[in-house]
Amino acid sequence: MTERLANILITSFTKILMPGIRVTIPLTVCSFAFSMVLALFLAIVQVANIRGLKQLSQLYIWIFRGTPLLVQLFIIYFGLPSVGVMLDAFPAAVIAFGMNLAAYNAEVIRAAILAVPEGQTEAAYLIGLTYPQLMVRVVLPQAFPIAFPSLFNNLISLLKDTSLASSITIVELFTTAQQIAARTFEPLAMYCEAAVIYLIFCTVLTWVQGYVEKRLVWEHKEGDRKGLRGLKTGV
Amino acid sequence: MLEVKGLHKAFGGNEVLKGLDFKVEKGEVVAVLGPSGSGKTTLLRCISFLERVDRGEILFGDLRHDMVHISKKKIREFRMQMGFVFQSFNLFRNMTALHNVMEGLTVARQVPRQEAERIAWEMLRKVGLEDRALYYPDQLSGGQQQRVAIARAIAANPQVILFDEPTSALDPELTGEVLEVMRKLAEEGTTMVVVTHEMAFARDVADRVVFMEDGGIVEEGPAEEFFRHPKEERTAQFLRRVLGDLESDR
Ligand SMILES: Nc1ncnc2c1ncn2[C@@H]1O[C@H](COP(=O)(O)OP(=O)(O)OP(=O)(O)O)[C@@H](O)[C@H]1O
Ligand SMILES: [Mg+2]
């Protein structure tokens, strides 16, 4: 390795990392949070069998899973202004990523809700709970650990997909790598460096996933813990 | 006290309850017997509105209602006066035993938290599980789970408790503890309808026995008499078969 290349790699590392921390991560977090709110709504109107909304939700999922994310992003950022809807690049990206991911997360949540044994639903009705109470107190707390691994998987995918935001002028991790590559004529090194930084982010996320999953277990607070380790609910 | 009249229920084209009349008096323990597929579970599920019936009327306390055209709100009103114990326990797996018992009080009936907790502890003591109050269902044996389920069913002091084969999902050595709790409830004068295959329990604890076959009631009468002198040939046949099994079990 030449000294020049080594220098470029070292100085560019923080230059690529910083927009990663300042833009890629907030973009991921905001998009994911938005997707979850929307996904919860899309999933619940389906399992609750609310006429009209259920069909609308299915239509939504059909469209957003059936068209490319990049196309959705372009429609929202470059297309909507012609009907008078102007969005800054960052909110446009959050909306596009969030709406796209919501379609996938809604299916994960719906499947998790259906995996909660039906008998508990009947038991809840029989002790007098209403449907919203049943959802909030019994079904969703149990659906969450079931859905968690798949939701987290989608979060990791999203983190990498945010690199598409470079195509709508957002200066995030990948955009920066592109700029430096153009300036230094070292595309291989710069894109590999960008890849390594994504890999670092994803590795951290994977650790977080493992940590949280271990805690998604109902266990009693007092008494004998021995012999109870490894007991898992939901999954 | 609780009565259903002219109950009709079909699944698809398969008629499961064929105009059945069923009644339980206050303080009475009724055992419902019958071969598999005779419609015992369906009867309990219709009474508690877990199944939509095709025809029928319910009289409960001073409430009287058509069972087909009935609002969700009204159904909830009826259910608030009933307890139900399932074959498969159906405890809420995200809650401790204590919270399982409290849930119907705090959430459905707005009982203040402290009061609900006091009642829940008392119910758990009644079923002999005070020391397991803070355990989650997955950390309890089948027999313990079913006793928690009974505590949950009796917590709101319902007028009647419906049991659907409460010991059928249990290992034989665990049925005793559950039956013991039920026997105690019966002695306290709790109104109970118990679908069961436990002939000894039906004979010793029930006041009245109802024998179902093919979606209808074939014979009913005081428990003593039912077991000693069954009137119908089909009943006698059934008893010979199950009591024969009971003997050979020993
Ligand atoms: N959800 C359902 N859909 C279709 N058929 C059903 C359903 N539930 C029950 N049945 C039918 O209704 C009939 C009566 O069933 P039910 O469960 O009431 O019998 P049971 O007397 O409780 O039997 P067991 O002693 O085996 O529990 C059976 O023929 C059964 O196949
Ligand atoms: Mg049954």
Please give a structural write-up.
The complex is a heterodimer of chains A (235) and B (250). Chain A has one domain: Orthogonal Bundle (MetI-like fold). Chain A contains eight helices and no strands. The C terminus of chain A is likely disordered. By secondary structure, chain A is mainly α. By secondary structure, chain B is α/β, with parallel strands linked by helices. Helices cover 40% and strands 25% of the residues of chain B. In chain B, the strands form two sheets. Chain B has a six-stranded mixed sheet with strand order 6-7-8-3-9-10, sandwiched between helices. In chain B, strands 2-1-4-5 form a four-stranded antiparallel sheet, with helices on one face. The longest helix of chain B is centred in the C-terminal third of the chain and has 17 residues. Chain B starts with a strand and ends with a helix. The mean pLDDT of chain B is 94. The interface between A and B is medium-sized, with 27 and 32 residues. The site of magnesium ion (MG) has 3 residues of chain B, from helix 1.
Provide a brief overview of the structure:
By secondary structure, chain A is mainly alpha-helical. Chain A has helices at residues 3-47, 53-66, 69-79, 89-115, 118-126, 131-161, 173-184, 187-215. In chain A, helix 1 (3-47) packs antiparallel against helix 2, helix 2 crosses helix 4 and helix 7 packs antiparallel against helix 8.
Backbone shape of chain B: globular
Helix content of chain A: over 70%
Structural class of chain B: alpha/beta
- Series of H and E elements of chain B: EEEHEEHEHHHEHEHEEHH
Strand content of chain B: 15-25%
- Helices and strands of chain A, in N-to-C order? HHHHHHHH
Q: What is the fold's blueprint, element by element?
A:
The complex is a heterodimer of chains A (235) and B (250).
Chain A: H1 3-47, H2 53-66, H3 69-79, H4 89-115, H5 118-126, H6 131-161, H7 173-184, H8 187-215
Chain B: E1 2-11, E2 14-24, E3 29-33, H1 40-47, E4 55-60, E5 63-66, H2 72-79, E6 82-85, H3 97-108, H4 113-126, H5 142-154, E7 160-164, H6 172-187, E8 192-195, H7 199-205, E9 208-213, E10 216-222, H8 223-228, H9 233-249
Parallel strand pairs in B: 3-8, 3-9, 6-7, 7-8
Antiparallel strand pairs in B: 1-2, 1-4, 4-5, 9-10
Helix pairs in contact in B: 3-4, 3-5, 4-5, 5-6
The site of adenosine-5'-triphosphate has 11 residues of chain B, from strand 2 and helix 1.
